[in-house]
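User: Could you check the structure of this?
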Amino acid sequence: MLSRILSLLFPPTHIEILVSNTEYLSPHPVNVRTLRGSIVLTCTHYDDMSANAAIKLLKKHGSIQAAKLLSQLLYDTLLEELSDIELWNPKHIILIPMPLSPKRKRERGFNQITKVCAQLPAELRTCVVIDILLQTKHVPMQKTLTREQRLKNVSGIFSISHPDKVRGAHVILIDDVITTGATLDEAIKTFEKAGVSVTAVALARA
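Assistant: Sure, the predicted structure tokens are below.
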């Protein structure tokens, strides 16, 4: 009875209905390039209605259902990629969610990529580490900035808290949506400066 009353008072939104009716997000992996030319493996296109709804619901409300859908999408996309890394690269693999600045983390209350990684199968979930890459500076929204401004805006915003934990490892860096990739590029550069090999992955490409 209570749930019925609540549903009448707070009817589900179109996005919530779409996500609740989605059982599976089909991967459509494509490699894209960032502003600096780094290659990023993307799982699907942001124009995919179900993927778009899941990402929005995850970022706004931390939806577990959305996190599960996106986690399966990520896992399916990574299967072949991980097999290639394990075949050609003897280093152990670490999965690192893109961090939020302390300010944005306080505002949102959670890191949406961490929620996605928490839903991965156990064999990958044990590879997830969230305390290594830190975003030490807050970056305002970059939609209206030029290429040069975007690159300058994100310069030096990341640091590695425990270099010893990634030494000799292969990092898979996971983000949600890539547009220009300026922020992701800076994170990649931070690891590369530390001598760490990186594969960048985004749930969706804009």
